[in-house]
């Protein structure tokens, strides 16, 4: 047998033994699909959730999807409430309640989406409706909330919790 035929046979055999190779993207997509199935989402609900994730990714440069409904941003994390779910939980760890850690500014908007800011900076905000906030930053740290033109709408000094209408808030500076 010629060296070329031997090499071709070895390559074909190695491919059969190794099986199909999944890309990181395909593997991640499979994991996200498993998360939505475990949560009991229908195919239509899964598609709706992914559309919301895609819309958020398009509006937030640098954001990255890390679970079926959780995204990381420059300033923290966002967990989107899954369709048909009454509570907002990261579908990668659905038995773990969302908490607002020390040093964080946490917001739940009117859609039930949770925003968790833990880095100082000036961030675009996509929340809507009436919701809550937990300014669990170091005592005395002032969180600022801005109008679309960049003017300050209101602020809050940590440690404090409350309610707010998020529709007119376009930007946030956690500290």
Reconstruct the topology from this structure.
Elements lengths: L2 H16 L5 H15 L4 H17 L4 E2 L4 E3 L3 E4 L24 E5 L5 E4 L5 E2 L5 E7 L5 E5 L5 E6 L2 E6 L5 E3 L2
Structural overview:
This protein has 175 residues and is of the alpha+beta class. It has helices at 3-18, 24-38, 43-59; strands at residues 64-65, 70-72, 76-79, 104-108, 114-117, 123-124, 130-136, 142-146, 152-157, 160-165, 171-173. It has a seven-stranded antiparallel sheet with strand order 1-2-3-5-4-7-10, with no helix packed on it. It is globular.
Tell me the structural class: alpha+beta
Mean pLDDT: 86
What's the helical proportion of residues? 25-40%
Dominant shape: globular
Low-confidence stretches: 1-24
List SSEs in N-to-C order. HHHEEEEEEEEEEE
Please state roughly what percent of the residues sit in beta strands, choosing from under 5%, 5-15%, 15-25%, 25-35%, 35-45% or over 45%.
25-35%
Largest sheet: number of strands, sense, barrel closure = 7 strands, antiparallel
End-to-end CA span: 72 Å
The total strand number stands at 11
Helix segment count? 3
Strands of the widest sheet, in order across it, are 1-2-3-5-4-7-10
Oligomeric state as shown: single chain
Query: What is the radius of gyration?
Result: 22 Å
Concise summary:
This protein is of the alpha+beta class and 175 residues long. It contains three helices and eleven strands.
